[in-house]
């Protein structure tokens, strides 16, 4: 692999950019933002994961600007593959879905920076500059607050038994099945379920499971079986 030389000094080698987004207008807007800065040169564009991986390997850009959702897959999965194949390549995840889950997903995938599409174009350019200089150091505007939210739970706190009941409900088990699984009476199982519903502010199984998914109390593989 031939690594790009990232030199921000005017007259030095420019930082090269690969834009990955399935919307032409967004790519054109990003291209315009980067072309206003003499330190950058947009050397390629891609509209899918497959095209992004192919062009990244061929062009060896200093930085890839990666959309989160692409027609043939996830930008996060593409980021993981790029980070594994090109350890020194900068990767900026750009998305309109800018929640904590997406931010931490970008961090865990090996991105260099995370920027919401609602941010000014200058923020994307600044993130690309950071990514080119320190590709393995993650930055995001809301990172400190997101970390605080993750470390300070604000939702209902379930006991180990309530968490177990929630998982069994998500598996589609009946009250009798839950009682058998927990080695308790059906009356006791109903009490556990009732307390769980109360904590989640739910009136039935479907409401409880949807609330649990929204609060992150159930992982995606535990998708409810109604």
Can you characterise this structure?
The protein has 226 residues and is of the alpha/beta class. Helix content is 49%, strand content 15%. Helix 1 (24-35) crosses helix 5 (121-133) and helix 7 (160-170) packs across helix 9. The radius of gyration is 23 Å and the shape is elongated. Mean pLDDT is 89; it is low at 1-11.
Keywords:
two-stranded antiparallel sheet; 226 residues; single chain; alpha/beta; 49% helix; phosphoprotein; DNA binding; CheY-like_superfamily; disordered N terminus; Tscrpt_reg_LuxR_C; 8 strands; six-stranded parallel beta sheet; Sig_transdc_resp-reg_receiver
How would you sum up this structure in a few lines?
The protein is α/β, with parallel strands linked by helices.
**Overall mean pLDDT:** 89
Report the biggest beta sheet as strand number plus sense, adding barrel if it closes: 6 strands, parallel
Rg measurement, Å: 23 Å
Number of strands: 8
- What is the overall shape? elongated
Q: Which percent band covers the strand fraction? A: 15-25%
Number of helices: 10
Secondary structure class reads alpha/beta
The succession of helices and strands, N to C, reads: EHEHEEEHEHEHEHHHHH
* Sheet with the most strands: spatial strand order: 2-1-3-6-7-8
Name the helicity range.
Answer: 40-55%
Low-confidence stretches: 1-11
Distance between the termini: 50 Å
């Amino acid at each position: 692999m031939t690594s790009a030389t990232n030199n921000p000094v005017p007259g030095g080698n420019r930082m090269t950019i690969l834009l990955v987004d399935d919307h032409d207008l967004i790519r054109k807007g990003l291209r315009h933002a980067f072309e206003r800065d003499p330190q950058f040169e947009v050397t390629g564009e891609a509209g899918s994961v497959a095209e992004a991986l192919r062009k990244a390997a061929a062009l060896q850009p200093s930085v890839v600007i990666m959309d989160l959702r692409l027609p043939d897959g996830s930008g996060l999965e593409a980021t993981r593959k790029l980070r594994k194949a090109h350890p020194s390549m900068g990767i900026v995840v750009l998305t309109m879905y800018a929640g904590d889950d997406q931010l931490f997903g970008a961090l865990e995938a090996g991105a260099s920076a995370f920027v919401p599409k609602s941010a000014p174009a200058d923020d994307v350019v600044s993130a690309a500059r950071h990514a080119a200089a320190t590709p393995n150091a993650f930055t995001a505007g809301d990172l400190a607050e997101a970390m605080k939210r993750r470390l300070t739970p604000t939702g209902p706190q379930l006991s180990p038994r309530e968490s177990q009941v929630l998982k069994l409900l998500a598996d589609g088990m009946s009250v009798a099945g839950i009682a058998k699984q927990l080695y308790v009476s059906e009356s006791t199982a109903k009490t556990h379920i009732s307390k769980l519903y109360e904590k989640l502010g739910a009136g039935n199984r479907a409401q409880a499971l949807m609330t649990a998914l929204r609060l992150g109390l159930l992982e995606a593989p535990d998708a409810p079986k109604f």
